[in-house]
């Protein structure tokens, strides 16, 4: 007769065998052999596609336009330092902001950068419009409208493009238009070439303006001579400039239609 202890000893064991490895569950699908989860391929493609949206394209286009405007402002800065020190400070600050902001805005997607660029470019456009329509309210040429030269028009157009691009990138929307990689790179390259070609004549015109101020030619501003030429008809034709800088007296007509030199009497 067997005892209960003997029957329990004869039952098969359901536990792990001593010394055998503990069984593990198979790794989930999509994971790496090391056990780290990897995103599916379609999710990785979708994340890359979100950087090629129309909003990002407008943001980078605005950055390139602002950078080109800053380059033209840099060329125009020396002449404004000569005109008025505050004008030079303003142009230096505008140049530094547009160049630094343009580089950062092109490389990084930031709502703060977009808002800052929008406010700054709108402010620069407002100052430009006031100075050309009614003149600045203070400064050496207060109340006198400044002429709009080629460099001014080019900078204004570039800043307007930057404003439009930033507004488009900030518009709230449910879905974004996505471009193909080739299409996105093509548009960015064409925009870069266009803004670069636009900035070249602006820089040239700004440098010519600076050279005109340096040589005293006026550079688009009205300058009047302090000494105006004397009209012989209004002075009776009595004086005329001589080669040595001294004035000589001209013969005056007499009543009989003949001219007599000074000191000569008529018979």
TrEMBL record:
Region annotation (Disordered) ranges: 1-53, 210-267
Bias (Pro residues): 18-30
Keywords, sorted A to Z: Membrane, Transmembrane, Transmembrane helix
Basic and acidic residues: bias regions: 219-230, 243-267
Transmembrane region(s): 84-104, 111-131, 151-170, 182-203
Protein name as annotated: Uncharacterized protein
């Amino acid at each position: 007769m067997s005892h209960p202890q003997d029957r329990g000893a004869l039952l098969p064991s359901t536990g792990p065998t001593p010394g055998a490895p503990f069984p593990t569950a198979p790794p989930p699908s999509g994971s790496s052999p090391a056990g780290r989860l990897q995103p599916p391929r379609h999710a990785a493609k979708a994340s890359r596609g979100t950087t090629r949206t129309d909003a990002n394209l407008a943001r980078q286009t605005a950055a390139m336009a602002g950078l080109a405007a800053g380059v033209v402002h840099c060329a125009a800065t020396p002449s404004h330092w000569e005109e008025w020190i505050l004008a030079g400070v303003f142009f230096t600050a505008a140049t530094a902001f547009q160049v630094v902001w343009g580089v950062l805005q092109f490389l990084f997607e930031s709502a703060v950068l977009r808002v800052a660029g929008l406010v700054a470019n709108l402010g620069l456009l407002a100052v430009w419009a006031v100075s050309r329509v009614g003149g600045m309210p203070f400064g050496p040429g207060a109340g006198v409208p400044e002429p709009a030269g080629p460099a001014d028009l080019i900078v204004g157009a570039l800043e307007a493009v930057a404003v439009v691009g930033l507004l488009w990138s900030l518009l709230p929307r449910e879905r974004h238009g996505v471009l193909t990689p080739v299409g996105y790179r093509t548009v960015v390259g064409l925009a870069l070439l266009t803004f670069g070609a636009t900035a070249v004549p602006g820089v040239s015109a700004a440098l010519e303006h600076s050279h005109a101020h340096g040589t005293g030619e006026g550079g688009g501003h009205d300058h009047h001579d302090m000494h105006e030429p004397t009209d012989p008809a209004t002075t009776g034709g009595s004086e005329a400039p001589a080669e040595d800088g001294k004035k000589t007296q001209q013969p005056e007509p007499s009543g009989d239609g003949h001219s007599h030199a000074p000191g000569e009497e008529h018979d």
